[in-house]
Amino acid sequence: MIAEHGTVSALESLAAQWKNTPPSWSRSDDPCGDDNWEGITCKDSRVKKLDLSYNRNLGGPLPPSIGNLKQLVVLSLNSNRFTGAIPASLGRLSNLTWLDLASNQLTGNLPTSSDGASGLDQLVNTLHL
Fold this sequence. Notes:
Main location: membrane
GO cellular component, one term: membrane
Membrane topology: Single-pass membrane protein
Subcellular location: Membrane
Number of strands: 8
Number of domains: 1
CATH topology: Leucine-rich repeat, LRR (right-handed beta-alpha superhelix)
Protein name: Leucine-rich repeat-containing N-terminal plant-type domain-containing protein
């Protein structure tokens, strides 16, 4: 199954700004296809989980395009080399129930959800920063 176009564009934007993304991110145009991208879990052609924790060489900024992964339930980027401000666009991830950004060099506060969605201000699971 082919991932939604907006999702693929968002992931390609992340890959373009990050250093040392997993090799599988450049081998295929479809993160949900037969050759899944490392750290990506899909359901019904939608990216539900992005877990690239403990990739010590993976780093860069968290760009606003991360907020375009609208079906994301789990975002785990623990113990990497991410730097800069936490983007306000994370507040658009209304399906997010798990967020782990610990052990990076990120600054700023977690954004609130937009349009009254549950999102970041009502995460179901433990929040790690």
